[in-house]
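User: structure tokens for this one?
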Amino acid sequence: MPSITMSKNVCVIGSGPSGLVAARELRKEGHKVVVFEQNHDVGGQWLYDPKIEDEELLGRDNFLKVHSSIYASLRLVSPREIMGFTDFPFGMKKGRDTRRFPGHKELLLYLKDFSECFGLREMIRFNTRVENVEMLSFPNFGKDLKWIVKSKEKMAEKAVEEVYDAVVVATGHYSKPRLPKIKGMDAWRRKQIHSHIYRVPEPFKNEVVVVIGSSLSGQDISMELVDVAKEIHLSAKSLDISEGLSKVISKYDNLHLHPQIDSLHEDGRVLFIDGSWLIADTIIYCTGYSYSFPFLDTKGIVVVDDDRVGPLYEHTFPPSLAPSLSFIGIPRKLIGFPFFECQAKWISQLLSGKRTLPSWDEMMQSIEEFYHSRDVAGIPKHNTHDLADFEYCDKYADYIGFPHLEEWRKELCLSALRSSDVNLETYRDSYEDEEMLQEAHKSPHFTQLGNEAFTL
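Assistant:
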């Protein structure tokens, strides 16, 4: 391993979980770091924003005005024990939300604690939006590459341009709405919103609401609307739904399940593919999010094609621009915080010269093989980065000697998924994994800080 380490000027875009841990690891490795954050505080997606009036209802603008898609009542879908960074457990604190599946504010407080503990705020320029990132000169593979970053502070008249050795994109992927293509969508005159700007149920009082999408937010929002809306009609891709969702639908008289929508009509009609129809007041699209980097100009080297960001080696490095350009937090459906931490360590060590990447050919071959394996498995392109694979996390960790996920972490994750599948309404407050929980609390992850993490 090379012993000479190089210090780089690095720009990190975003101060959510992935941006914060990137800033910490980069500085630990001796780099000079500036973090750009368009909001007034850390947290990224977890910084709840009730002010959604200026956002286009379906979020179709290139640069969104609102970053967070969190609604007021949102609670974590994973237990807190599995969420923390490896050396900073997400413990309980007196006077805070001590539930195992706390509300979103508790995770924001955890991220603020993390920032304070490691002195990260001093690296962050708040209220500063990155408008453009481009190469200073077109690269030759392996040659040092520099980036021009154009940013604008909220109250400033002019944007500022600066040059960096490396850029880490940590902007998250739960902001830009992904919308279906439905016949008549543009002609439908009534209210259509994406769950990106759903916050509270009150505006839908006594309405007939169609919720499109039966995944996490679709389920949550439908359950929240039952006490307020006149009728909720949940349109799902498949009528083969979980036992938990089935129980909820049979419990509430005003909640109904439908297949996919065939078309929307000017008179307010919503026609489903089974021929049934209804007149609705509002449609809420709970149809997920797209990857979007409107500020990034790589001359076509990195593209987003139907939500496949590529080509990226191990979902992190574009082979032609690595390691001076990297993405952190692209993979979905895995235990995020330890994975982001592992990504951040790898990026930091590559930039300092402690580690090196495989050749361009080897990286491209690895990417092609991965794409091919997804195609063979029948996984749609837009699910390229949905990994849902503990083994992948461990394989990734091996690149830098990062510890594998603990068995208790995997088990607590799976146990929450199984519970939500069966008891959708109650799984966050009643659980049967007490034994595994005890094991977690005795593990080095929690005992490293003494006992204060779980003494109230």
